[in-house]
Amino acid sequence: MSKSPKHFLDINELPLSELKSMLAASSAMKAKQKAHQPVKPLEGKTLAMIFERPSTRTRVSFDVAMRQLGGEPIMLTGAEMQLGRGETIADTARVLSRYVDAIMIRILNHEALLELAEYATVPVINGLTRRSHPCQVMADLMTYEEHRGPIEGRTVAWTGDDNNVLASWAHAAERFKFKLNVATPPELAPKKVMRDFIKATGAPIVLGTDPEAAVKGADCVVTDTWVSMGDKEGEHRHNVLKPYQVNSKLMSLAKPDALFMHCLPAHRGEEVTDEVIDGPQSVVFDEAENRLHAQKGILAWCFDAVK
Ligand code: CP
Ligand code: NVA
């Protein structure tokens, strides 16, 4: 019987030991790359990358990661594939599995990601859905720990709306055992799926509506765009989110050495001010760089090449 593929779909689906070994492999490969001694465990392997939505970081970092590890990326967009003309996800999964060694997909519909994983016989990686963005948060965990050491027992504050990046931070809080304080406007608060997750796992996540209370004493302050892909733009949304902006005043309530994180792209002057994102506490470009290194750890894990 053939072995089931190792999918990377969500952080809370994997044991902490495996997540930690991915991050350790990412750091080791980063050090080798910086020392001009690249490792190439994926020679002869091909990754198909399907993008149903735009991307800068995910697209370029997966492409470069595959090349630096000795493999080949193939870039596909949903609209250019027969998927765009109604071929099913299941058939697409079956066909691509005959050509490539792994599939990375960005698709808003999370159920479609799960269906792809169900029918693919090669690993499938979640490159962002409406529900979660686990590759981003693996890079964020790597970045936090590079700057401040183990995240276990620390406090991360989220201020903004409920979205895919927050969901992956929540999954990480449960696995890595750090506290997550969440502040959202009441009408953009986490949905039942998150509340059920907290109840079922006992994850140290506190949901609230007051950004100052969430940020007070935090080790890390995180926010994201107020309008995610698939959300409707609108003045009302911006108005209710205005009090959740990360500015110097809000940042001053966190610990003096707190980090500021944002997955990017940022909407300067909306969810974050220039002063904060360009300030000394901001590590947003380290996060962006670590997408490349963290994804090497994820790819190597999917291919059973983590040493
Ligand atoms: N942070 C992130 O996923 O960026 P892209 O949308 O540019 O891939
Ligand atoms: N929450 C954002 C993340 C972009 C990387 C979105 O889904 O658009």
Automatic annotation (TrEMBL):
It is found in: Cytoplasm. The keyword Transport does not apply. It catalyses: carbamoyl phosphate + L-ornithine = L-citrulline + phosphate + H(+). Gene3D superfamilies: Aspartate/ornithine carbamoyltransferase (3.40.50.1370). Carbamoyl phosphate binds at S55, T56, R57, T58, Q82, R106, H133, P134, C135, Q136, C263, L264, R291. Its EC number is 2.1.3.3. It is an enzyme of class 2 (transferase). GO terms for molecular function: amino acid binding; ornithine carbamoyltransferase activity. Keywords: Cytoplasm, Transferase. Pfam families: OTCace, OTCace_N. InterPro entries: Asp/Orn_carbamoyltranf_P-bd (IPR006132), Asp/Orn_carbamoylTrfase (IPR006130), Asp/Orn_carbamoylTrfase_sf (IPR036901), Asp_carbamoyltransf_Asp/Orn-bd (IPR006131), Orn/put_carbamltrans (IPR002292), OTCase_ArgI (IPR024904). Residues 152-302 form the Aspartate/ornithine carbamoyltransferase Asp/Orn-binding domain. Pathway: Amino-acid biosynthesis; L-arginine biosynthesis; L-arginine from L-ornithine and carbamoyl phosphate: step 1/3. Residues 6-146 form the Aspartate/ornithine carbamoyltransferase carbamoyl-P binding domain. One of its GO terms (biological process) is L-arginine biosynthetic process via ornithine. Belongs to the aspartate/ornithine carbamoyltransferase superfamily. OTCase family. NCBIfam families: orni_carb_tr, PRK00779.1. Reversibly catalyzes the transfer of the carbamoyl group from carbamoyl phosphate (CP) to the N(epsilon) atom of ornithine (ORN) to produce L-citrulline. This is Ornithine carbamoyltransferase. It comes from Bradyrhizobium japonicum.
